[in-house]
Amino acid sequence: MRAMSVVQPAQAASALAADRLKLTEIFLSLQGEARDAGWPTVFVRLTGCPLRCQYCDTAYAFHGGDWWDIDAILSEVARHGARHVCVTGGEPLAQKRVIGLLSKLCDAGYIVSLETSGAIDIGDVDTRVSRIVDIKTPGSGEVARNLWSNLPLLTPHDQVKFVVCSRADFDWAVDVLREHALADKCDVLFSPSHAQVSPRALADWIVEEHLPVRFQMQLHKALWGDEPGR
């Protein structure tokens, strides 16, 4: 007679935790940034972020949130009926179990993007995911958190974003762009921090410097302002 395997309470709790993530919200909207701007997209916003960028517009995701089973997340995403899914935060990679969620979303046939601060290693992210890496400028207040070892991992499927807070930020971003040949690796996006740099000024600088980058504004902000879940 075979001995029965007994699952100890601690093991059961560990297995349960392995299938959960802490989420602030899941919602359907239009993608407002990056390569897929304009597409109806399901946003999965994870809770928590180790950075404190001075221009952050989602500080409400720093704390709180609810625990979701990964299967429940997949079911909620499917309920919205969109092909595009964006996993964002906070900083989603601060929760290691997000790696599994990203792969399961890809397995389910979604077009998946990940918005990450660039402060955490992207090497374990499924290569089917478009990794949108936000390189922090000096004006962000978090430039020291940039993990430069992420840059050699970038592929044409990925994207890099700079949020520009001043002319000095712009010049710094141009230096990084050229030093690391970023435009040869993937799409590069320059965005204005609206409280500090006008969109027109940034557009003029890009044109004057003949930069191989894409200017972008936040479409969702133009449509809905700072309303959460939009």
Main attributes?
6 helices; 9 strands; 230 residues; nine-stranded mixed sheet; disordered N terminus; TIM Barrel; 23% strand; alpha/beta; single chain
Give the strand order, joined by hyphens, for the main sheet.
Answer: 3-1-2-4-5-6-7-8-9
CATH topology, anyone? TIM Barrel
Strand % is 15-25%
Average pLDDT works out at: 91
Number of strands: 9
Specify the CATH homologous superfamily. Aldolase class I
> What sequence of helices (H) and strands (E) makes up the elements?
HEEEHEHEEEHEHEH
Head-to-tail CA distance between termini: 59 Å
Helical stretch count? 6
Largest sheet geometry: 9 strands, mixed
CATH class: Alpha Beta
Q: Which CATH architecture? A: Alpha-Beta Barrel
What is the domain total for the residues? Answer: 1
Q: Judging from the principal axes of the Cα atoms, what is the shape? A: globular
Note down, in words, how this protein is organized.
S-adenosyl-L-methionine binds at residues 55-57, 90. It catalyses: 6-carboxy-5,6,7,8-tetrahydropterin + H(+) = 7-carboxy-7-carbaguanine + NH4(+). There is one protein chain. It is globular, with a radius of gyration of 19 Å. It starts with 8 loop residues before the first helix and ends in a 6-residue tail after the last helix. The protein has a 9-stranded mixed beta sheet with strand order 3-1-2-4-5-6-7-8-9. The chain has one domain (19-224): TIM Barrel. Helix 5 links the parallel strand 8 and strand 9. With 230 residues, the protein is an alpha/beta fold. It contains 6 helices and 9 strands. Mean pLDDT is 91; it is low at 1-15.
